[in-house]
Amino acid sequence: KQEVTQIPAALSVPEGENLVLNCSFTDSAIYNLQWFRQDPGKGLTSLLLIQSSQREQTSGRLNASLDKSSGRSTLYIAASQPGDSATYLCAVLDNYGQNFVFGPGTRLSVLP
Amino acid sequence: GAGVSQTPSNKVTEKGKYVELRCDPISGHTALYWYRQSLGQGPEFLIYFQGTGAADDSGLPNDRFFAVRPEGSVSTLKIQRTERGDSAVYLCASSPGVGNAYEQYFGPGTRLTVT
Fold first, then answer.
1. Which of A8, A31, A110, B96 is 20 to 30 A (C-alpha) from B28?
2. Chain A CB within 8 Å of residue B31 CB
3. Quick one: pLDDT at residue A25?
4. Do A5 and A21 meet the contact criterion of CB atoms below 8 Å apart?
5. Given a cut of 70, is residue A98 above it in pLDDT?
């Protein structure tokens, strides 16, 4: 059964810092991996999707990488801003079904 | 265009009652997913539709939970004899198709509280 973990569980940084969020999954047989942002009391907003054949994706200040063989993905946020404060979730779409398995999330606070 | 919408946004019900939660996917999206999210945790898969049929319902916790999508668009998640442990945010997502290139787009969720 696929399991997804995220480290750290929470992170607090001053504005302007570059930071890395980590996601690990136990079964490397995945279709894709998606990073989401969730604001308190809100639904999920898709940030980046990496297909299984890809190594990384970039959008603005965000860069996500995928290493299937080691079961890891990282989300890099450059020049963090207070508006980046949210919970970041990673999810993998595995080869055995058509549903996502989510990690528990990393709660990020960017202090002005 | 319009995103995924869910109604109601909040639902408070008494233990033992029946509830229905509605999801309107993005127009034209063939795949629809239901998830449940408890406080401090990531969403947990419940059921997935491709068109009108439930392609995978392995995440439904027991037979009190049921979902339909009769016309391949709107979906309703139905919970019978609600229990306090059913309290959570129920999220719906839709996708243009199935496969590794398709993102899931989420609605704002319905917060269910069973008293």
1. A31
2. yes
3. 96
4. no
5. no
Sheet bearing A62-67, strands edge to edge:
A4-7, A19-25, A72-77, A62-67, A56-59
**Which residues of B are less than 8 Å from A36 in CB distance?**
106
Amino acid at A94: D
User: What distance in Å separates residue B80's CA from the closest CA in chain A?
Assistant: 24
Q: Pick the residue with more confidence: A99 or B19?
A: B19
Q: What is the 3-state secondary structure (H, E, C) of chain A?
A: CCCEEEECCEEEEECCCCEEEEEEECCCCEEEEEEEEECCCCCEEEEEEEECCCCEEEECCEEEEEECCCCEEEEEECCCCHHHCEEEEEEEEECCCCCEEECCCEEEEEEC
Would strands B88-95 and B110-114 be described as parallel, antiparallel, or unpaired?
antiparallel
Contact (CB, 8 A) for A37 and A86? yes
**B1 vs A51, residue with greater confidence:** A51
| Residues on chain B touching A51 (C-beta within 8 angstroms) | 100-101
Let me know if B98 is exposed, middle or buried by CB neighbors in 10 A (0-12, 13-18, 19+): middle
Count of A-B CB contacts under 8 Å: 66
**pLDDT single digits (tens) B77-90:** 999 999 999 999 99
Average pLDDT over residues B41-66: 92
The sign of the CA dihedral B81, B85, B90, B96 is negative
First-to-last alpha carbon distance for chain B, in angstroms, is 37
